[in-house]
Specification:
The protein is α/β, with parallel strands linked by helices and 314 residues long. The chain folds into two domains: 194 residues, Rossmann fold; 103 residues, UDP-galactose 4-epimerase, domain 1, CATH 3.90.25. The chain is 43% helix and 16% strand. Helix 1 links the parallel strand 1 and strand 2. It is globular. The protein starts with a strand and ends with a helix. The model has no long low-confidence stretch (mean pLDDT 97). The structure holds 2-amino-3-ketobutyric acid (AKB). The site of 2-amino-3-ketobutyric acid has 12 residues, from loops. The site of 2-amino-3-ketobutyric acid (AKB) has 12 residues, from loops. GO terms for molecular function: L-threonine 3-dehydrogenase activity. Belongs to the NAD(P)-dependent epimerase/dehydratase family. One of its GO terms (biological process) is L-threonine catabolic process.
Amino acid sequence: MKERIIIIGANGQIGSELAVALRQKFGTGNVITSDIRHPETLKEGEIFETINVLDKEALKSLLTKHQPTQIYLLAAMLSATGEQYPQKAWDLNMNGLLNVLDLALELGIKKIFWPSSIAVFGPHSPKQNTEQYCIMDPNSIYGISKLAGERLCEYYHHKYGLDIRSIRYPGIISWKTAPGGGTTDYAVHIFFEALKHGKYSCFLSAGTELPMLYMEDAVRGTIELMEAPSENIRIRSSYNLAGISFTPAQIAEEIKKILPNFEMSYVENDPRQAIADSWPASIDDSYAQLDWGWKPTFDLETMTKDMIRNLKTN
Ligand code: AKB
């Protein structure tokens, strides 16, 4: 079957790179990007639609017009911004998902990707090698909305047969588009600041270990999950996915190997510290490995080299 894909929330960090990879795979004209704001530039043949995922009628018209076979729903408010606007975060993250699930049912669109996050875990979840199934008591509004979203996805799969697939993304590190409003954003900002000013003031403490993933691996993993045979996808809530776990001190050391004059300092009492402290340090992703062959390729050293090389040359 010829695939036709709509990405909702395509201008963000993950969407902008996923769109490139999906257009390469399925053809430029078969991947429609959409977001609440028009992007600055569009390449020849690229189709973009302005949409607010909370406007269900407009979303219905868009889906009816393009008749996609797959939807990637990436519109969301991340953890740090979510704490500033909890009602808005809940509204966007929950009602955006519900609108897409209900319209997918109504319009017969079977296959959906929706991202969850390591934020579904909480202070009582195990810190190291956090398993797929364990205590989950998220205490950020973002984490609460992602956990509720996971339960909805599984429910819509079992009750209505929607082919929903999802990954619990760790912090994503990339050089093309900056992330916005997350707790793991420091691991991207650090590279930009290291090259521009030779120093970075980190809002998380030196020893805060968090799970991260390089964009190239994230995009490949997401498409691999979406391409896997349906019968292999045993988890319809969301898959744990591991890449690289490190602390701010460790990434600073790695950057210093390439930029020896780089200086790192730390700001205390940032509200993002409490969010980070409630999240896992590392993730057990055995189900993703077993079910659809997940394997990350970048470690801290190769990711750091690749980030700095790209930021210097692009
Ligand atoms: C955030 O920090 O909020 C996100 C995430 C881990 O989901 N990057």
